[in-house]
Each structure stands twice: as structure tokens, then as C-alpha cells.
Amino acid sequence: MLRVNVINNFFNALLFIKITFPRSRIFALYKRMSEQQFIPSDFSILTQPVSVGWQSPSNIALVKYWGKTDVQIPKNASLSFTLSACTTQTTIDFLPLSKPSSSVDFELFFEGKKNADFRPKIIDFFKRIAAYCPYLRHYQLTIRSSNSFPHSSGIASSASAMSALAMCIMELEQHQQPEITDLFFKQKASFLARLGSGSACRSIEGPLVGWGTHPRIPNSSDLYGVVLSDSVHPIFTSYRDTVLLVDRGQKEVSSTVGHNLMNGHSFSDQRFLQAQENMAGLIEVLAKGDVGGFVRIVELEALSLHAMMMTSDPSFVLMKPNTLQIIQAVRAYRKETGIPVCFTLDAGANVHLLYPDESAEKVMEWIENELALYCQNQQYIHDRVGSGAKKM
Ligand code: PMV
Maximum distance among all alpha carbons in the chain? Predict the structure, then answer.
């Protein structure tokens, strides 16, 4: 009798859960459960100072992330090439404190000088990760950071900077808890980096990283990036990216403002669907080594991102006349030579030129002779697909 009651109660409880929790609430509950795995149940504080250092690269999205919900949860899955030349180098000295401070106590030096401009972003970051890294308040941190690419080159440094910072924090966690696995180290580093800047979670590893749940990406998550483990044709693991520096000015619209403009945007629902479809298409193209399909999807994604910004309210035109000149020149060159070089764009005027390694000599010559003229001070940066963050 008792047993029946228990069973009945169990089914009643299930019914209750189903009735009172719509799917989105159950999903939110599940998400919170997976976030829990990154909260240390206990931790020990080091008695001696420790210094750590990581170099982490920037990444360039092929399928773009534009639109999010709190906290840094993407509205659609994105996929990027991890780069190798555009990097941030960060070192942190952790000095144990006799008693914990009320918030993380840190000093910040950027390119050798004490920096106040980036402080608010780092304070925000430490607040967001407080529950996951409660041990940080037990140290005094001296953070020293520098970029391999020129400051205010128009290259977004938040992905490389936040991922380098996250790797440094994880190295401290590993000193405190040597038994953590390599998988946990990287997953939590990506999780923390995401809380600093969404796309930063795709910079921990390489060569291709997906972020956001998608049926075609095994083990994909909204919480951290995963290396694309499906077969990727070797042509795409040695791809080149030349960043054409069209405009070195300050960003006209911050990422936060831009993402928020996707809330209530007339075309946003359609855009999120399109991105999910483009992702499925791109994954197939990457497996097959279909460079023609790659060109089609990557350029469509770049222009769709800008179309969203041009049609938001307020609207933004982030391309400059020379961005368009380059786009036209790329399409003409491709038609004329048959070389599958294509462009992609971030939320700015600079152009990333993507091309196979085997065409590098010819494409580089063309860049020098023709495209450099469209760049500010004729500046560009040759980069290539890389493998992620490296310990210094
Ligand atoms: O990581 P955020 O919040 O700076 O957003 C980056 C958005 C894009 O660079 C435009 C696209 C992307 O997926 O990287």
C-alpha cells in the first residue's frame, strides 16, 4: 500500500513538474545545474605567492554571434577559426592575503603602464565570476597585459584578453587543486572567458571552435566553447587570415549595445534561424573540404551581421567606403583567378581575408600590390589558423 502511494506520489510529482514548469524553465534549471559544476565545493589558499602567464589568440567568427540573453548566453550557435599571430600576453602575480578582501584586489598594467581605462571591465568580470572563483578575494593580483597587434588597430582585443585572463585564473585554481583534469581546466577557462566577453570562450583552443547549442555540434553548450570534433578537411586547418586594417578608429558601437539592439529587432528571429541553418551547412562544407560552399556561407554570414546593424534602431553603418572597395575587389579577383579567397567582417570596418594555405603566395602578392592601398597607412596583419592559448 505504502509502495503504491509512493509510486502515485512520484507520478503526481512528475505531472506537477510538467504543469508548473514550462520547457524553458526546465531548461533554465538544467543550465543552472551545469553551471554548478564550476563552483568549487571547497578550496585551499596557497601560502606562497605564485606567478602565472598565458598567451591567448583572437578568433574570427565564420558563423556570427550577434544577440544574447543574460548572462552572455548566445541566441544562436557560432563557429570560429582560432588565430595565432593576433594575441594577448597576460601574467598575474598572486600574493596571498592574511584575510580576504571584500572584492578582488588588483592592479592592472597594460603595455607596461598602469591602466585605468580597462579597470571597469575587469571589475565587472570579477563580479560575474565571483561565485565560480571565490578564492580570488584571498589574493592581491598584479595583472600585466600586452597585445601583439598595435593598440587601436580596430582589432577587437576582448577575446584574446579575456581568454588569457581566464587561463591565468585557471592556472591558479590548478595550483590550489592539482587533481583537476585537463578537460575541466579548459572547459572552465572557456566558461569564465565567456563571462568576460562572449566570443572569448572560442579562443581557448583551436583550430575551429563552436559555441552555443546546435544539433550538428557534438557536446555543444551555451556555457562554453567546444572544439569541432567532427572531421574537418585538412584544407581548413591551415587556412590563412589577413586582417586588412581599413579603419583604426574606436569602435562606433560597443558589442553590448550591438547585441542588445537584437532584442525587438524586426528581423532578429529570422536571423537566429538563418545562423542555425548556416551552421549546419558550414559543418558539412568543412567536412567535405568544399571551399566554394565555404566562400558562400562565410560571406553571407558577414553581410548578414552588418545587415542586422544597418536595420536596427538606432541603425549603424560600420563599413567604410574602403571596406566596400575591398569586398568588390575580392569578388572580382576570385572570378578572374578562380582562387577561393573570401572576406569576413567583425562589428567594424576592417576586413578579414580568408584563403587556403596553398594560395598564400599569390594572394599575398595581390594584397601587397592592390588591397594595401585601401588600408589605413597601408597596414595589414598576416595571420593563420592556430591551436589556442599557450602557457608562457
Ligand atoms: O564577444 P562580443 O560580445 O564582443 O561579441 C562579438 C561579436 C562578433 O565579433 C561581431 C561576432 C562573433 O561571433 O565573434
Answer: 87
Query: What's the CATH superfamily of 234-390?
Result: GHMP kinase, C-terminal domain (3.30.70.890)
Of the candidate CATH numbers 3.40.50.720, 3.30.450.20, 3.30.565.10, 3.30.230.10, the domain formed by 50-230 belongs to: 3.30.230.10
Q: Chain-wide mean pLDDT for the chain?
A: 92
Host H or E run for residue 65: none
Highest mean pLDDT among 116-120, 155-159, 204-208, 247-251: 204-208
Q: Give the Å distances, CA to CA, from 369 to 81, 345, 378.
A: 26, 22, 10
Q: Tens digits of per-residue pLDDT, 272-308?
A: 999 999 999 999 999 999 999 999 999 999 999 999 9
C-alpha grid cell for residue 357?
594555405
**Stretch 98-109: mean pLDDT, rounded?**
98
Q: Is 158 in the pocket of ligand 1 (CB under 6 A)?
A: yes
* Ligand 1 pocket residue status of 61, Cβ below 6 Å: yes
Q: By three-state DSSP, how is residue 8 classified? A: helix
The DSSP code sequence of 16-32 is HHHHHS-HHHHHHHHHH
- Our answer on whether the CB atom of 64 is closer than 6 Å to any ligand 1 atom is yes
Q: Which three cell numbers stand for residue 85?
A: 599571430
- Report the run of H or E that residue 59 belongs to, with start and end: strand 50-63
Q: Which residues contact 389 (CB under 8 A, 6 or more apart)?
A: 54, 55, 56, 57, 163, 164, 167, 189, 203, 204, 205
pLDDT band for position 13 (cuts 50, 70, 90)? very low
Whole-number Å distance, alpha carbon 61 to ligand 1 midpoint, is: 8
Of the chain, the end-to-end C-alpha distance in Å amounts to 66
How many residues does this entry show for the chain?
392
